[in-house]
Every structure is written in structure tokens, then in C-alpha cells.
Amino acid sequence: MATLKYLLQSKSENSQIYIRYSIDRKNVLWRKSGHVIDSKYWSETLSQPVQKTDALKNLKSKLDKLSIFINDRYNDGVSAGIEFTGEWLQLQIDVFNKKTPVVELDVLTNYIQKYIDEAPFKQNQKKELGLSKGRIQNLKLFKNTILKYEVEALKGKSILVKEVNLQFLEKYKMWMFGKGYSTNYVGKNIANFRTVCRDAFKNDIETSTQVKNFKGVSESREPQDIIVLSEMEQESIKKAVLTREALINARKWLLLGCLIGQRAGDLLSITENNIKEISGAKIIELKQQKTGKLVAIPLLPKAIEIIESGMPYKISLSRFNEYIKDVCKEAELNTPTKWRKKETQGEPSVIKVSPKHEAISSHICRRSFATNFYGRIPTPILMNITAHSTERMFLSYIGKTTYDNAHQMLEYFSRLADK
């Protein structure tokens, strides 16, 4: 027959009352009862509260009822062939105390994994089914960052979805900034917390009432921190003497990218089938992978020259990033440049100053196009090509401000006045 005994393990004013539940000599279960007491009012002889006040009598009554409840559930379990473990005992205590037991999806990282697993069936920005590979990768990094936080800041304790509130976010932000994560990455994490918690709420998982107040953080890059290829640098790249076929091919993609302003994934997917002719003018027509938008980009003479010299052959994004660094090195782009580099996977990137060719990546194509043609092509047309949804986002992308835009408007007004 199983026996239950209440014990204290400390001599404090708020001592936890523990349950020792002995199934047999080899199986003794320990758990907190969910009640506390000032140790001076505890009878070690009787293993119960001293009956001095109504509150103490009430506490004894609760403990007696808990004992009866656990023993009844034990007898039911014996008949059903249940395995008796610490988790079983904790469940009985939680049920008696009317405390909702923690289930698998209450754990934040478990719910994030559920969200990732369901990615093919989630609605994306294009109102279609399926999150993009980039979005899924972002969520995986988010989950790994939380796991790291649990180990380093919480001694391995799992975070519950309902614990994610404004106070938690402040502590999490402080930890991230202390580890050297960028402001924009911290902001993305907060946005992910908001997305995941909202989804959990829709699925009847307990969440904080503060979720709607989660606010992201971001920072605009200073103009000097935005890396682009000027038209003069593009000319140096064009004239560089290259002997490797792989670098010659990568150079074509790089220079073409700076002239059509597309994301690298869209750029490297272009084939001769995307080249069209409308009213005697050559264009590139493509459906942007991220937005799903069909765009038609007029080809400048320099872009036509690249294509007519032979369309570059397809390469992977990782190879493109590798080769264009070598191309720019051969073009002697050695200006000291400040940039962020990820030294170790899963760790925050670090700020470095090195020759410019080391800082070159596929992002430079779209940003160079937007920067070099800003003020020469109307901003709405540029935004349509680069797929920026707002002017504020576009100006931030190229390191401009609303004042720069105002100056541009004044120049237009001046030209109109001259007429």
C-alpha cells in the first residue's frame, strides 16, 4: 500500500510543504504540494500544521483532502496499470489545485517548431500558401537564439508561451544587446515573438494580454555605412583583367544586377526567356519571388551590351557571393570599408573594417541600382522596380532622408520654373 507524508525541507517563514509518496521501497516520489507554511507552525511529529488558528486548521483540511485525492487516483491507476512517476504525482497535485498542467505546446520553443512544421500551410505576404525559405530560416534562427538564451540566462529553464510579456522582452533585449546582436536583428526577434504568440492565442494556448503591445526596434543605417558600387567602380570591374571563366561569368551577373535592381534570387534566375521587346525597346520581364509581383525593367544600353555578349550561365547564390569578392579584388576595390561579418554560424555578426572587396555580397546589386539612379529616375518608378512598398523604406534602404527627398523636389520645381 502506498503511503503519503508531508515534510518541510527548510526552516523559513515560507517553507514549501513537500509530499513524499512511497509506492514501495524502490519507488519514492517527491513533489511540492503547492502550499507553504511558517516552519514554526509545523509539527514534525504529526507531519501537519499546528492547530492554533483557523488558517492553520484550514490548511490542514486542504492537505487531508489532497492526500485522499492522491490515494484515490493511485488506486484507480493500479487498476488501469498506470506507471507511477514524479510527473504522474505532479499532475494529480495540479488537478487538485485546479492548476492547468503544462502541455507540450505551452513551451515556447515547441510552439515555434510547430509553427515551422506548418510553414507550407501558412499564408504568406502574397496571400498564398507556404512561407518562403528565407522566412523559415529566420524562424529557425529565432528558435536557436531562444534556446541559447534559456541556457545562458535561465540555466536551461524552458520559457512558456504565457511568460512572454513586456517585462520578459526587456530582459531578452538586454541579453541580445549584451551579446552584440544588431538592433535590427533584435527587432526581428520581437516581431517573431508577436507573430508566434498571436498564432498560439488562436490555437487556445494561454498567452499574455500584453502581446498586442509588443513593439519592434530598428535603426536606419548611416549613409556612410551603406555599401554600394558607384558607376566608376562598376567601370573598374568591367575593365578588370580576368582569366577564370567562373569570375568572368560572375562579373556579368554583378554588373547586370547593378543595372536592373533585383534581389539576387530573382537576378540569378533570369534566362533568355525573360528578355522581351516592347515597342522596339528591350526589357526584362520577371515575377519577383518574394512579392509575387510581375515587373518589366527597361534595359539600359550597358545591360543590353552584357546580354548580347552572351547571357551568363546560372550559378548558385553562395557561389555568386564567393566569386564577386574575387572579381572586386581583381578590380582593386580596396577602400577601407566598415561592414558586418558573421564569423561563426549562430553568433551575432561583428563590425569590421577591411578592403571593400571583402565586404561585397549579392545585396550590393539592388542597393547600387537604387542609389545610383535615385534623383535621376522618379522615386515611384524606382520603388516599383526594387519592390519597396513604401517611400520611407526605400529612402532608408539607400541611406536617404525625407530632407534629401525635399531637395529633389526643389530641383524638379526649379526645372519647371525655368520652363
From TrEMBL:
Q: What highest taxon heads this organism's lineage?
A: Bacteria
- Kindly state which keywords UniProt assigns to this record, in alphabetical order: DNA recombination, DNA-binding
Which Gene Ontology BP annotations are present? DNA integration; DNA recombination
Q: Which Pfam families match?
A: Phage_int_SAM_5
List the Gene3D superfamilies: 1.10.150.130, Intergrase catalytic core
InterPro entries, alphabetized: DNA_brk_join_enz, Integrase-like_cat_sf, Integrase_recombinase_N, SAM-like_dom
Limits of the Phage integrase SAM-like domain = 109-213
In its UniProt record, a GO molecular function of this protein is: DNA binding
Q: What is this protein called?
A: Phage integrase SAM-like domain-containing protein
